[in-house]
Amino acid sequence: MFKDLDPILHSQLRLAVMSILISVKEAEFTFLKEKTNSTAGNLSVQIQKLKEAGYIDVTKQFKDNYPQTICKITKQGIKAFEIYVTSLQSYLGTG
Amino acid sequence: MFKDLDPILHSQLRLAVMSILISVKEAEFTFLKEKTNSTAGNLSVQIQKLKEAGYIDVTKQFKDNYPQTICKITKQGIKAFEIYVTSLQSYLGTG
DNA sequence: ATAATTTGGTTTATATTATAAACTACTTTA
DNA sequence: TAAAGTAGTTTATAATATAAACCAAATTAT
Question: Out of 3.30.300.130, 1.10.40.30, 1.20.120.80, 1.10.10.10, which CATH number does the structure's domain B12-88 have?
Answer without folding.
Answer: 1.10.10.10
